[in-house]
């Protein structure tokens, strides 16, 4: 059996790494990795592959940026040639980036079965490009591997054939659980040596969504939240390229770069970032995956988005949604934390580090000779 796994952006790497380990246990399965290069930074990409013990991709497409349409079209054209050459039995896509839907579409049109890992997630906000990618990918996939109960409900509402749906857990959490026992031994970048910060006594902030950082007002509101957090605790701010570029574009970079209580870093590799997550007093973010990781780590998390496609992080975990960049709400939540009042949370069902094994077992049974 020949499987092609697709990665396009850094969050995909963490989801594919445990699958790659699980596939190795079956000599009858040949697994190839295609890196579309949808989001690509040479240094960061190499670091993620090394830290996650992933082999060098069998194919690197080097797609790069562009509009959603341009990027999707380029991926489809390049991926089609790979499928013509390799003739795989299955294409496995993860997550919700443009590479996910692009490669799934090509495979389906070539009558090659598709497996979607992280199926069924819905934010119910179709202004998010990722939401369109999720809906379309789920509707054309043959195997849908679901991370949380709401995913099952969403797919049922959409009339997806129940025989295609498998509730398996979360491969992102597989990676986290795999590396967590030794995470405190990981060395942080050199700049952390010259900055004093205390474990469990800092706020880790990541903000990058267009709704928060692509407009001048949104960015001003984001800066206000960061500066407010810095009044209570030291802040560590790994700066996303989009956020960094927009700070310069609107002339707002001095607003935070001059604050001695805010430590600004470049984006970090997976393992150093997990170390910071694990030891944070509070995480403030607009990310999807970080909502899941903080829930597993039982670290309080404030998420600045109107909705989440990962509701189990709110209903079961440690995540609190804040629909607007509202200083009063942030202040209220920080004060509650200072008083020892916060969501303790639980780890969701099947988030046990074995999701990839369940997925690979199912596929092996389906495709065994």
Task: Write out key terms for the chains shown.
single chain; 369 residues; alpha/beta; Rossmann fold; seven-stranded parallel β-sheet; six-stranded parallel β-sheet; 16% strand
N- to C-terminal separation? 8 Å
Tell me the β content: 15-25%
* Backbone structural class: alpha/beta
CATH topology of the largest domain: Rossmann fold
Question: Order of strands side by side in the largest beta sheet?
Answer: 3-2-1-4-5-6-7
Order of helices and strands: EHEHEHEHEHEHEHEHHEHHEHEHEHEHH
CATH top level of the largest domain is: Alpha Beta
Number of domains: 2
Supply the CATH architecture of the largest domain: 3-Layer(aba) Sandwich
Note the quaternary state here. Answer: single chain
Average pLDDT, all residues: 92
Describe the structure.
By secondary structure, this protein is of the alpha/beta class. The protein has 2 domains: 186 residues, Glycogen Phosphorylase B (Rossmann fold, 3-Layer(aba) Sandwich); 153 residues, Rossmann fold (3-Layer(aba) Sandwich), CATH 3.40.50. Helices cover 45% and strands 16% of the residues. It contains 16 helices and 13 strands. Strand 11, helix 13 and strand 12 form a beta-alpha-beta unit. Helix 1 packs across helix 7. The chain is globular, with a radius of gyration of 20 Å. The model has no long low-confidence stretch (mean pLDDT 92).
